[in-house]
Amino acid sequence: MKNPTISVITVVYNSSELIEKTIKSVISQNYKNIEYIIIDGSSKDETINVINKYSNSIDIIISEEDRGIYDAMNKGINLARGEWLNFMNAGDIFFNDNVLEDIVKNSYLLKSSIVYSDTIIKNYKKEIKSVANFSDSIFIHQSIIYKRKLHEKYGPYLVDNEITISDYIFFNQLKDEAIIKYPNIISIFDANGISSQANSFYQKICYDFFIGKISKKYFILILIFYPIYKYIKNLFK
User: Fold this and answer.
1) End-to-end Cα, the chain, rounded Å
2) Which letter, b or e, does each residue of 88-101 get, where b requires 16 or more Cβ atoms within 10 Å of its Cβ?
3) DSSP 29
């Protein structure tokens, strides 16, 4: 398709101060063939009121309790009708208003099943550029646009209250798919969310060791020195 539908899904819970900038970023995209879906986990703050302010620009709004972020993401996938998916969760924004239009115009979607890019990570009022490399499993979900049909082939995101890296596990299965790196930046990621927690880091290291991606020696060294690195980093915040 010349102008395929891209389903942008926002998952949110109790983020009334962050959700508006995400909504504005999505609905301001110059590419107009977007299906916008918001999955709210029955927020207890003013989140749903903020969302409803923009209801005319949002295709689907769901507000109900869920089993966590990946359950909510799976709900969005099941509702999506677009050929392509992107997750832009509360606090995250597209790098600029032309991102999706540029990706489509330059035929990146025609050449691949997955398009990804570097990411700007915003944390503690600082912004740094994270250089992505899909083959090395260095990527951030918000800077990935991928075919919805991949979930038919590889299944949904794993839902478990203790697992915070279901997206990392899912994308590590896709190494044999057609993957293209977009030369510009797709998103600015709010690193204060769940995926930035230390627990996610340890889960990734354990998963990499389990699938044989890293050696036992490297695994042990990381477990020893990562807490020291975090301690020193926190001293200089």
Assistant:
1) 48
2) bbbbbbbbbeebbb
3) -
CB 22 within 8 A of CB 93: yes
CA 158 – CA 234 distance, rounded (Å): 31
- In this structure, what are the phi and psi dihedrals at residue 9, rounded to the nearest 5 degrees? -115, 130
pLDDT in tens, 73-107: 999 999 999 999 999 999 999 999 999 999 999 99
Please report, as a single letter, which amino acid is at residue 83. Answer: E
Orientation angle between helical segments 216-235 and 198-210, nearest 10 degrees: 170
Task: State how far the Cα of 171 lies from the Cα of 94, in Å rounded to an integer.
Answer: 20
- Taking residues 111-135, what's their average pLDDT? 91
Residues 233 and 43: their CA atoms lie apart, in Å, by 33
Please, are residues 119 and 181 in contact by the beta-carbon 8 Å criterion? no
* Structure-token pair, residue 114: 């997955």
Hey, CA dihedral for 190, 193, 197, 199, is it positive or negative?
A: negative
- Which SS3 state, helix, strand or coil, does residue 198 take? helix
Q: What is the pLDDT of residue 208?
A: 62
- Residue 160 makes CB contacts below 8 A (sequence gap 6+) with 70, 166
Task: Name the DSSP letter for residue 132.
Answer: P
H/E segment holding residue 196: none
Q: Evaluate whether the domain defined by 6-193 bears CATH number 3.30.1490.20.
A: no
With H, G, I as helix, E, B as strand and everything else as coil, classify residue 114.
strand
Long-range contacts of 229-232 (CB under 8 A, 24+ apart): 230/198
